[in-house]
Amino acid sequence: MAASCVALLALALALPLLLLVAWKRWRWGRAARHVIVVVLGDVGRSPRMQYHALSLAKRGFSVTFLGFCTSKPHDELLQSDRIRIVRLTELQRLAVGPHVLQYGVKVVFQAVHLLWKLMCRKPAAYIFLQNPPGLPAIAVCWFAGCLCGSKLVIDWHNYGYSIMGLVHGPGHPLVLLAKWYEKLCGRLSHLNLCVTNAMREDLAENWGIKAVTVYDKPASFFKETPLDLQHQLFMKLSRTYSAFRACSEPSDPGMERSAFTERDAQSGTVTRLPGRPALLVSSTSWTEDEDFSILLAALEKFEQLIDDGERLPPLVCVITGKGPLKEYYSHLICQKHFQHIQVCTPWLEAEDYPLLLGSADLGVCLHRSSSGLDLPMKVVDMFGCCLPVCAVNFQCLHELVKHEENGLVFEDSEELAAQLQTLQPTALQGQSDVPRVQRAWLCEGCASRLGETYLVCVCFYLRK
């Protein structure tokens, strides 16, 4: 009798433990092939994290993507049956009260909202977070991971405090607080990825964080655009932007013409227009780390060269993107009175942007890293489209752009204006074998310097 009581007591004590172990095994079995990707920003304007999600999905993971849904992501992401996008609510800044109070309310709201969204998801083996923005996302994702048994992976694109410093100054209390928070909470992660070797070294030396460099690489849809697709894009844009409209109507009513191309309606053949303008493209987030006054000054010098009799083509300059300084620079552009240059600032659909890069003659990058440690992904995309690039110089740009090897590097508007003169008319007469200027800039080894694919790199490090 006593033995039976002891056995029942032992079973009663062991049963909850056995149930707990079984529950944890079941929970981990569900979580092992699930990853939550978090961006406290616009999903459509976070290409690197979109590529991470696609890479994980192709390797058999189910992916929940948390972020703001302001602009449309790539179709491949939307069409994947392994990726689910969960919308986060973006709280606009309050219109009243001190700036610090407005910012504090926004941070508290984002923290509570993000934690709620994370806890409502099914268990995940990893929470994959983009930083910046990391306030309050790093602490929230770490706390949710502790509760749910998820490991935190941070992908360091830059430092959030350095971006804040562009607006408020490096000594502002909010900037100093953000730096302390980022440095403290960044050490809570289980794995860290970063975008350059320079950032990896800085994280190790000054933050005590060990990271792995994963260079950006262009997605497969960044490639040269066939001439017929170029024409379709130009005709589509011409309905909204005058820079893409033909200067004159074709003599043959059966021809369809843009500023750059024309198509024979009967045969469907597309040809480049003789004497067409050169197409220059620059993309931006319209933030303080990109000084577009450099490009505008270079365009003024380019215009003066044409007025002085230099044999240079007219120019269409397309600056794509959204951001806080767009209105400021749009006002400056309107004050210019170019005769040979047209500037437009469209916001392109996700599918049209790679088509535009693949149709252009030259790409210009004005990104100066706030920390000096990150690289402009826009240049990577341009390389994918075999588009020659002129990029403004900063600390670690050499990890991506090699001057006169796979691109040109400039320091100011004078140097950029000189580089724009490489747009010689002989490269713009419509020969099918020379659709770009200075193709030799893109050496065969360029792609290897862009690093491993996301598919191999991300999944390998998650399994370590």
From TrEMBL:
SUPFAM superfamilies for this protein: UDP-Glycosyltransferase/glycogen phosphorylase
Broadest EC class assigned to this enzyme: transferase
Pfam families documented for this protein: Glyco_trans_4_4 (PF13579), Glycos_transf_1 (PF00534)
Pathway named in the protein's UniProt entry: Protein modification; protein glycosylation
Keywords: Endoplasmic reticulum, Glycosyltransferase, Membrane, Phosphoprotein, Signal-anchor, Transferase, Transmembrane, Transmembrane helix
GO cellular component: endoplasmic reticulum membrane
Positions of the Glycosyl transferase family domain: 274-421
Subcellular location: Endoplasmic reticulum membrane
Residues in coiled coil: none
Membrane topology category: Single-pass membrane protein
N-terminal signal peptide: none
Main localisation: endoplasmic reticulum
A GO molecular function held by the record: chitobiosyldiphosphodolichol beta-mannosyltransferase activity
Lineage top rank: taxon: Eukaryota
Reactions this protein catalyses: an N,N'-diacetylchitobiosyl-diphospho-di-trans,poly-cis-dolichol + GDP-alpha-D-mannose = a beta-D-Man-(1->4)-beta-D-GlcNAc-(1->4)-alpha-D-GlcNAc-diphospho-di-trans,poly-cis-dolichol + GDP + H(+)
Domain Glycosyltransferase subfamily 4-like N-terminal: 50-212
EC number annotated for this UniProt entry: 2.4.1.142
InterPro entries in the record: ALG1-like, Glyco_trans_1, Glyco_trans_4-like_N
Chain's role: Mannosyltransferase that operates in the biosynthetic pathway of dolichol-linked oligosaccharides, the glycan precursors employed in protein asparagine (N)-glycosylation. The assembly of dolichol-linked oligosaccharides begins on the cytosolic side of the endoplasmic reticulum membrane and finishes in its lumen. The sequential addition of sugars to dolichol pyrophosphate produces dolichol-linked oligosaccharides containing fourteen sugars, including two GlcNAcs, nine mannoses and three glucoses.
Family: Belongs to the glycosyltransferase group 1 family. Glycosyltransferase 33 subfamily.
Protein name listed in UniProt: Chitobiosyldiphosphodolichol beta-mannosyltransferase
Organism for this UniProt entry: Balaenoptera musculus
